[in-house]
Fold each of these.
Amino acid sequence: MSYPCGLPGSRSPPSREGRWGRPGALIDTAPHAESASLAAAKAADLILIPCRPGILDLRAIGTTAEIVKLAGKPAFVVLNAIPPGATRLLADARAGAAVHGLAVAPVASSSAPLLATR
């Protein structure tokens, strides 16, 4: 299977309409909404799990990992809010996310102080 955005297995850039010529959709489910999360996961082609590098956030994706396994779909943990230059924190967060048996996306987003409101 091929995925856009440079994820492993990617072979081609995404089209404007999405991979199958129709618009893609992002579904964000609420925490502790396991039945809604499982339904969304079963409908998905690819699951992206955003996660901050904190220990509580990394522990919290355990339930999501179980949902991913039940749905049988490919998934990636996408680490976000990583401070620029925090390579050790990024490495530790990658290791913490991998404990759940999920692949960690090769890209991570940094915290963006320029976008923060004052």
Note: Residues 50 and 70 are 19 Å apart (CA to CA).
Amino acid sequence: MKYDIRKHISKHMDRLMRSIDKENRSSDDCWPWTGPLMARGSGLFNVDGHRMAVHRVIWTIDRDQWIPEELFVLHTCENKLCCNPEHLYLARRAYTHGEGIIYKEVPEWDLRRYRAK
């Protein structure tokens, strides 16, 4: 079974929140990550030796749901450093088109289908 951050995050919440810049920003604004970065420019968060993309951590905490490995957490704002949970959504890879990848949003109510695998 994969590492479930929900069981371990409580002791790391202060450190997580210190690296999110929410000062003078509304709930509609992007909340940039100011901590370490992954090679591709997304935020990196380490929980008990497990390196994770911070936007996956934020989505999991906000919705208290595990994210299946085959799903992606994408940003409506297209800002890789944004930690505002209102800007995050789940998607699956639909197909590759030329140089890019096309994603299709996965409704949160449809997560049970992925858990059944």
Note: The chain has one domain: 5-115.
Amino acid sequence: MQEARHALDYPLVSTRFRFIEEETCSVVVPYEHPDQPGEVEHLLQREPQYPREFFRQLQPYLIQMRASVFAQAQRTKRIEEVFPGVWLWTDRYDPSYGVVFGEE
């Protein structure tokens, strides 16, 4: 497929491409954004009155986690539900690798 892509043969690429559908869950990762330190903590201080605006502001801090990984994170208490349907990652986060499960 990569050869077809590099040759700009998009009709062939479209026939070879397969999207992997997998259920995911959104999780807030409270990393420090250089332009807005403490932004996540500020957003999560109280339940949002305007959910659309709240999620727009939270967007830079959201990751998509596979459902199986999400369930594992719940079991091992690496995420907590701060508001109904809003989950916060509480374990380590590496800017290069993403979420880190303990010593892994």
Note: Strands lie at 24-28, 62-66, 79-83, 86-89, 93-94, 98-99.
